[in-house]
């Protein structure tokens, strides 16, 4: 299996889950053929596309029209079949069937409500992974998982940097909290 590099995606002004974070997040989801993934705050669709290429049926919720366009273009570029839903979460979650994998990449300030709605449709034994720049959002999801007795909760703070140019300048990406849990 080949992972897609950031520069291969069609980009715009919409945030994208960066390569190193995407690998860890999709790895933590444990995607297998036949899984059903809900990607909330899908952005450019990078997580959705990687999951689809691993055999998941994917539903992507994105509120921004530019994001919807980018997801559709990237899905076509990588020959993936993704159901794209233009809506805000948690409302858009009502438009998808139950799922066994869930990725939260953006919450628009509605994280607790998003968790509650996603949890109601996530199958028992299903995996939920969230990525956050802010400690507050990470903490909200961790508290939600604890309150709902999620198992095998794992927390990571990832900071990656990449050497660029002939001079070897180190360019840092934002540190990202990654949290994973399994619904009981």
Quick tags:
seven-stranded mixed beta sheet, S-adenosyl-L-methionine, 9 strands, Rossmann fold, cobalamin biosynthesis, 184 residues, alpha/beta
Could you characterize the architecture of this molecule?
The protein is globular. The longest helix is centred in the middle third of the chain and has 13 residues, at 65-77. Strand 7 (161-164) and strand 8 form a beta hairpin. By secondary structure, it is an alpha/beta fold. Strands 3-2-1-4-5-9-6 form a seven-stranded mixed β-sheet, sandwiched between helices. A two-stranded antiparallel sheet has the order 7-8. The protein has five helices and nine strands. Helices cover 30% and strands 30% of the residues. InterPro entries: Cbl_synth_MTase_CbiT, Cobalamin_biosynth_MTase, Methyltranfer_dom, SAM-dependent_MTases_sf. It comes from Clostridium polyendosporum. Pfam families: Methyltransf_31. Keywords: Cobalamin biosynthesis, Methyltransferase, S-adenosyl-L-methionine, Transferase.
Topology:
Blueprint: H1 19-29, E1 36-40, H2 46-53, E2 57-62, H3 65-77, E3 82-86, E4 99-104, H4 111-121, E5 122-132, H5 135-147, E6 151-158, E7 161-164, E8 169-172, E9 176-182
Parallel strand pairs: 1-2, 1-4, 2-3, 4-5
Antiparallel strand pairs: 5-9, 6-9, 7-8
Mean pLDDT: 96
CATH architecture: 3-Layer(aba) Sandwich
Question: How can the largest sheet be summarized?
Answer: 7 strands, mixed
The fraction of residues assigned to DSSP E strands is 25-35%
Shape: globular
| SSE string | HEHEHEEHEHEEEE
Spatial arrangement of strands, main beta sheet = 3-2-1-4-5-9-6
């Amino acid at each position: 299996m080949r992972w897609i590099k950031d520069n291969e995606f069609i980009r715009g002004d919409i945030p994208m889950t960066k390569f190193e974070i995407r690998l860890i997040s999709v790895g933590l989801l444990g995607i297998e053929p036949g899984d059903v993934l809900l990607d909330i705050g899908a952005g450019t669709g990078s997580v959705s596309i990687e999951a689809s290429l691993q055999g998941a049926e994917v539903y992507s919720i994105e509120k921004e029209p530019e994001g919807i366009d980018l997801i559709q273009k990237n899905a076509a570029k990588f020959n993936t079949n993704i159901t794209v839903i233009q809506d805000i979460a948690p409302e858009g979650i009502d438009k998808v069937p139950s799922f066994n994998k869930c990725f939260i990449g953006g919450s628009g300030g509605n994280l607790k409500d998003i968790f509650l709605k996603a949890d109601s449709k996530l199958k028992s034994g299903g995996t939920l992974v969230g990525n956050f720049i802010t400690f507050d959002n990470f903490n909200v999801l961790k508290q939600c998982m604890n309150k709902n007795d999620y198992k095998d909760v794992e927390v990571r703070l990832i900071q990656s940097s990449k050497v660029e140019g002939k001079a070897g300048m180190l360019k840092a990406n934002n540190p990202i909290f990654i949290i994973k849990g399994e619904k009981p």
